[in-house]
Amino acid sequence: MENNQQMRKWLDDMNLSHPLVIAGPCSAETEDQVLKIAHDLKDTDVNYYRAGIWKPRTRPGNFEGVGALGLKWLQKVKEETGLKTTTEVANATHVKLALEHDIDMLWIGARSTVSPFIMQEIADALEGTDKIVLVKNPVNPDLSLWLGGIERLHTAGITKLGAIHRGFSTYKKTKYRNIPEWQLAIEFQNKFPDMPLICDPSHIAGKRDLVFDISQTALDLNYDGLMVETHHDPNNAWSDAAQQVTPSNLVHMMRDLKIRKETDEASEYNKKISGLRTQIDELDNELLELLGNRMKVSDEIGQLKKQRNVAVLQSNRWNAILGRMILEGETKGLSEEFVLRMFKAIHQESINHQEKIIKA
Ligand SMILES: O=C(O)C(=O)C[C@]1(C(=O)O)C=C[C@@H](O)C=C1
């Protein structure tokens, strides 16, 4: 699969004056609930109404969705409000039922994207459809798996494709439910700049207070749209209660989010930015020069260790460097996370250099 400008045609054809907005409850619970939220969202920026019908839950015994009955409620949403509809599909039966009920857009969840078998089953079931199909990132931060899932759909002849970034599972304690790993989504955009990319701030956040900030970051990174879980009574929702926002929260959020343009044609801006970019280029060259010099010193240490038969890894020394650099970094406005990542990469390169010397 190669990037192609046609990839964003389905989105461009909508001629939206704002990012694409997909909203609605995590789960369809009752017909009244589905219709109430849809009517609340009817005259807002929302383009597609979402509701989970089949809910894959981490542990059995929780509410697992109302099943095919909910598809009829989504049809009613379309009839009564004119909103287009979307739901998650996780196997060939779901696909068949969703297509029979004329659901306009389907999405594939993170727990399905992770399995090439399931992705292939879904792709085969979707073959030839002209519905829009969005693929959430897999639960683990693996870009190839995400792209592979989309590729299977592409190979099955589905042309209206897009990706949803919902964050990644982690065992680390963080403020997020699923860590965003924005770098991975940036890599996705670099490879497929014309593939519509939607952010799901609700699943990244896990709690509603973070939804606005995550949405703003996504828009600052040129995302094409947002999928926001929205419920008229979030605290009593049957699933994902903590992360859903009310329809009126969503309206305020859409009003307050800053939609920034990709670039600015004004010559004042261009003059300033090209001066600053020259500085960045020079600093990047200096960084590489310094890193090259650091590796030369590491090579000398490698020679010494080889002569004296000393191990490459020196944990005490390494921990001392890390501790000092984190403190130094703080005084220069660099986050601990960044300093750690950068020095771990430098250490690995240094070890690789010395290994090469020792094994030669
Ligand atoms: O101090 C050493 O012994 C080194 O080899 C240098 C270095 C480094 O790159 O800073 C590399 C490997 C060791 O684990 C510790 C530190």
Automatic annotation (TrEMBL):
Pfam families found in the cross-reference section: CM_2, DAHP_synth_1
Source taxon at top rank: Bacteria
Classification via SUPFAM superfamilies: Aldolase, Chorismate mutase II
InterPro entries per record: Aldolase_TIM, Chorismate_II_sf, Class-I_DAHP_synthase, CM_dom_sf, CM_II_prokaryot, DAHP1/KDSA
Spans through the membrane: none
PROSITE patterns: CHORISMATE_MUT_2 (PS51168)
Residue ranges the record marks as coiled coil: 259-300
Keywords: Coiled coil, Transferase
SMART domains referenced in this protein's UniProt entry, alphabetically: CM_2
Domain Chorismate mutase: 267-358
Gene Ontology molecular-function annotations: chorismate mutase activity; transferase activity
EC number: 5.4.99.5
Top EC class for this record: isomerase
Name this protein carries in UniProt: chorismate mutase
Natural source organism: Flagellimonas nanhaiensis
